[in-house]
Amino acid sequence: MRVRSWLTGAAALVVLGAAAFWALTAPATFTALRGRGDAPRAGAPDLDNGRTLFNAGGCSSCHARPGQDDRTLLGGGLELKSPFGSFYPPNISPDPTDGIGGWTVAQFIRAMREGVSPDGRHYYPAFPYTTYQRLTAADLGDLFAYIRTLPATPGQVRAHDLAFPFTVRRGLGLWKLAFLDGKPLAPDAAHDAEWNRGRYLVEAAGHCAECHSPRNLAGAVDASRRYAGGPNPEGRGTVPNITPDESGIGSWSRDDIVELLKTGFTPEFDSVGGSMAAVVRNTAQLSDGDREAMAAYLKSLKPLPSAAPKAN
Amino acid sequence: MLKTLLAACVGCTIATVAVAQAVQPIAERQGLMKAQGRATRDANAMAKGEAPFDLAKAQSVFDTYLVTTSKFASLFPADSKTGETKAGPKIWEDQAAFRAAIAKFEADAKAAKASTTDLATFRTAFGQVTQNCNSCHETFRLK
């Protein structure tokens, strides 16, 4: 069964009958079919590693409280515009009532990898768990421990502002069976350790593909044109192609990519803006080695022609 | 008939003038930004030790930024919102914030120039003033 969109999902409801839909979309069904069983690190968590994943994963870009400069105040509330409506990322600070201070590490891992909340509801993929599903349990345990060292920020955010049928979370169960494969990133022996590290940072944490790829009708990343750029989901303009094609960043050296991830400057010494400015504030916090690894991985991508016309 | 043609033609000259007006400031503001890009590239090479440090050259980078800040605000007339430009709508929606971003860039460039006496002070000053590039582009420029 191939499910293409939430709308087709609604049609499938009629065809399959409500009972089958209910079974297929239950968060427990997803866990049973796709969940995997690795565990977080035994003993003390590695907070430095947690901080690295926090920066590589760009949690601040969406969860930091808007209108202030402290990246570690995770009170949420930023408006994320999408074709389905506006999302407001919640408070993930360690506040025990408004944030995730009362969560267990297992609940956190399930949220990050399966997109399921502690009370068993599906999360919208505006939360990029389609990327974070590839993080190892050890890294997620460290990330959770790091977040718990940050300041507790009270206050809840407003509800998402979505159009029907996207308001129905249950329908996401079908979307997830179609677009969330639950597979870890197995190291690729054909490449060296640096490339594998770069791939992990880009594919499991950095969610670079979530912005730098066109999406299909169901709002999922178009796999055949991953990293080929696309329209800006937030409105006017485009997101550039970052494959090593001439319509992408084929003319950039590895050092050029490292420089961009550190300072935000392109080879023409233009400074990247828009939503990429926040990404650079995250990657600027990583080690030189990690930025080198990400550049090595990006240079190895398959060159693809731009999926969106380059804005002048 | 003739009247209509004439009226149409007056209309077309006005339209041409309007377009010409919009193209001018766009080209000028982009030219200022390109010059900044070149100056920033040279400065970055010095800061990273890839080019020899030269105090006069280092300070002239900040002068280039100050040329921009002295002219930039006047180069965004209402008819230059569209066309070959990546200027974002927020420039016109929140003019006070845009002017404040220019003023901050100017203050930081002045402070950077004053504090640069050697390579070490240059590195710090350059790092600080170039934060303005990302933050202004984040809000006021489209891709």
Task: Specify the overall morphology of chain B.
Answer: elongated
Largest sheet of chain A: 3 strands, antiparallel
Percentage of residues in DSSP E strands of chain B: under 5%
- End-to-end separation of chain A in angstroms reads 42 Å
Distance between the termini of chain B: 46 Å
The major pleated sheet of chain B works out as: none
Q: What is the count of helical runs of chain A?
A: 14
* Helix residue percentage of chain A: 40-55%
Average pLDDT of chain A works out at: 86
Q: Name the assembly state.
A: heterodimer
The total tally of domains of chain A equals 2
Radius of gyration of chain A: 19 Å
User: Uncertain regions of chain A: pLDDT < 50 for 5+ in a row?
Assistant: 1-16
Instruction: Please tell me what the overall shape of chain A is.
Output: globular
SS element count, helices of chain B: 6
Mean pLDDT of chain B: 85
Rg of chain B (CA only): 20 Å
Structural class computed from helices and strand pairing of chain A: mainly alpha
Which segments of chain B are poorly predicted (pLDDT under 50) over 5 or more consecutive residues?
Answer: 1-21
Organism (chain B): Alsobacter ponti
Protein name (chain B): Cytochrome c
InterPro entries (chain B): Cyt_c/b562, Cyt_c_II, Cyt_c_prime
Pfam families (chain B): Cytochrom_C_2 (PF01322)
Spell out the key features of this protein.
heterodimer; A: 312 residues; mainly alpha; Cytochrome Bc1 Complex, Chain D, domain 2; 2 domains; two-stranded antiparallel ribbon; 14 helices; 4% strand; globular; disordered N terminus; B: 143 residues; 76% helix; elongated
